[in-house]
Design a protein that fits this description.
The protein contains 2 helices and 6 strands; from the N terminus they run E-E-H-E-E-E-E-H. The protein has helices spanning 21-42, 101-115, and strands spanning 6-10, 13-17, 57-62, 66-71, 83-89, 94-100. The two termini are 18 Å apart.
C-alpha cells in the first residue's frame, strides 16, 4: 500500500486502499459535476415545466484495486441525502456497499490535503 492510502468512511467502518492523487482529482471533478446535477434536480421547476433528467455518475479507476462509484442524481431529493454505490475489488476481495456522498467528498478532500 502506498504511504498515503485513500480512506473512505462507510456507515459501519472504513476501507483504505492505494489511490493516486491524480485519480483522486479526477474523482473529485466527477463528484463536483454530480453535485451540479443533484442541485439541478433539487431545484423546484416552475409550474408546468418538466425536470430534465440528469446523467448518472459512473466513475471507474483501475490501479492496484478497481474502484467504481455510481450515483443516479435523479432519485435523491437533495445533495445531502444522496448516496453512492461503491465497489472496491482486487484479485482476492470485492466490497460493494452504499456510502454517503457528503462523507465521501470529505474523505477525498482530506486525502488531497494530505498528498498536496
Amino acid at each position: 500500500m502506498s504511504s498515503n492510502p485513500l480512506t473512505l468512511n462507510l456507515g459501519d467502518g472504513s476501507i483504505s486502499f492505494s489511490f493516486s492523487p491524480a485519480a483522486a482529482r479526477e474523482l473529485k471533478a466527477a463528484i463536483d459535476q454530480l453535485m451540479l446535477s443533484l442541485k439541478a434536480v433539487a431545484a423546484k421547476p416552475t409550474p408546468g415545466s418538466k425536470v430534465t433528467p440528469q446523467p448518472p455518475l459512473e466513475y471507474r479507476y483501475t490501479g492496484e484495486v478497481f474502484l467504481e462509484v455510481f450515483c443516479n442524481p435523479n432519485i435523491w431529493p437533495t445533495p445531502f441525502a444522496a448516496k453512492v454505490l461503491l465497489t472496491v475489488r482486487n484479485v482476492g476481495i470485492r466490497l460493494t456497499t452504499e456510502a454517503e456522498l457528503t462523507r465521501m467528498i470529505e474523505d477525498i478532500n482530506q486525502y488531497l490535503e494530505q498528498v498536496g
